[in-house]
Specification:
With 211 residues, the protein is an alpha/beta fold. It is 58% helix and 11% strand. The N terminus is likely disordered.
């Protein structure tokens, strides 16, 4: 091979290597702080997959913090989270779930203020919320996994959409189907509870008239 071609090839290899360095550096990046192993391994893999794709396409980092609670010795929780988020890649969004403390929240950089609908994601109503409705059914590890995965998918997909991006790793239609089932179950529970309440009231009044 001609010497000039060798130099050209070497420059191409070097350039390609430099280009791929960020990909290798982030290959094992973890976007979930799963301190207590509350959620399943498959959900952790999926969360990392969605977060990594969003980061590669937008340079925005989305994280999840899932634990039973934060350290009992923490007095100022606002300061705790302020210090914690300083260590994250900026700009960031951090989805928090503390199961024992019954805390679900989203912290984020000012740059992402209008990039997603926090109130909608954290809504307790099945029509809009993507996290809390799943926790209503039964508070166990399966539901925690479903709730955090569903909420994380909603958050990352909203941010991606605000930048005109489409994530190949997005849950998408399957995510919406899950929520449709949740809505059906929750509404059915509320309807049955309401009908049972009416039945008890009518039965009580009827019994009272007979006395």
């Amino acid at each position: 091979m001609h010497l000039s071609n060798i130099f050209k090839s070497s420059r191409l290899v070097t350039a390609a290597f430099i280009f791929l360095i960020p990909l290798f550096c982030n290959a094992n990046e973890s976007y979930i702080f799963n301190n207590d192993k509350i959620i399943g391994d498959r959900a952790v893999v999926k969360i990392n997959e969605m977060a990594e794709e969003l980061y590669q396409k937008s340079n925005i980092s989305v994280y999840a913090f899932v634990s039973f609670s934060i350290d009992d010795n923490v007095v100022d929780k606002a300061e705790y989270w302020n210090n914690f988020t300083k260590e994250l890649k900026q700009p960031y969004a951090l989805l928090i779930m503390l199961t024992n403390d019954k805390v679900v929240d989203i912290l984020y950089s000012p740059e992402l203020e209008d990039k997603f609908d926090k109130a909608k994601i954290l809504s307790p109503y099945p029509v809009t919320g993507s996290i809390l409705p799943l926790l209503v059914l039964k508070k166990d590890y399966d539901n925690f996994t479903a709730a955090i995965l569903n909420g994380f998918a909603d958050l990352t997909e909203q941010i991606a959409a605000s930048y005109g991006l489409v994530l190949k790793s997005a849950i998408g239609s399957s995510n919406r189907s899950t929520m449709d089932w949740v809505r059906f179950i929750v509404y059915s529970m509320f309807t049955l509870a309401f009908l049972f309440f009416i039945y008890k009231k009518v039965k009580y009044r009827h019994a009272k008239k007979e006395k």
